[in-house]
Specification:
By secondary structure, the protein is α/β, with parallel strands linked by helices. Helices cover about 30% and strands about 30% of the residues.
Amino acid sequence: MSQTAAIVLIPARMAANRLPGKPLADIHGEPMIVHVWRRAIEAELGRVVVATDDAGIAGAIRAVGGEAVITRGDHVNGTSRIFEALAIADPDAKAGIVVNFQGDLPTIEAETVRAVMRPLAEPMVDIATIAAEITREEEKTEPSVVKMVGTPVGDRLFRALYFTRATAPSGEGPVYHHIGLYAFRRDALARYIGLPPTPLEGRERLEQLRALEHGMRIDVALVDGVPLGVDTPGDLDRARAMLAG
């Protein structure tokens, strides 16, 4: 296993509550999942594989020359899905880093994706992720905007202390919006999958708290802006406008 070789896995399922069938939603003649796959390819982090329980999603990716693997339909979250997909796509463990790339980010910039690898330069980091400073005041109190609380450990780098839907930390200073793009060391992903759920994870409904509550280290790279996540028909319209032309 190479400690530096990465594989990018994109979990995608059809059963989205607010926008059913969104991976196959049309954006200028191509399914949204194909646009997401292209963004992952553009980041040039490593091999890119879509992990899905739907033959239509897999077919859309294979039709443009991409890789897709079929996973079980009973996964509780995307992290569980990519762990199964990793065993299928990389059974010889050639990749030492596993990037969990959300399947609803069709407009994300390559530079933002690449930033997720920066924290892994520190050998003690188990999981890397990204965040951006909140600039809209209303987002500081919006529960759907997950906040990262961390302590600086380098240039635009933080060690995560907590993630919350509440406004935190209090007092003067920036508040950071956590962006759910992760890079796991392969052994850290395997450890995470084997951990039992934790109280704060359940209370906040944030799966990354399981890692923190069990003593795993998550570091965070700061990026310049929050990419558009497509969760509603309005988001889809915005993505179409951003990708026009």
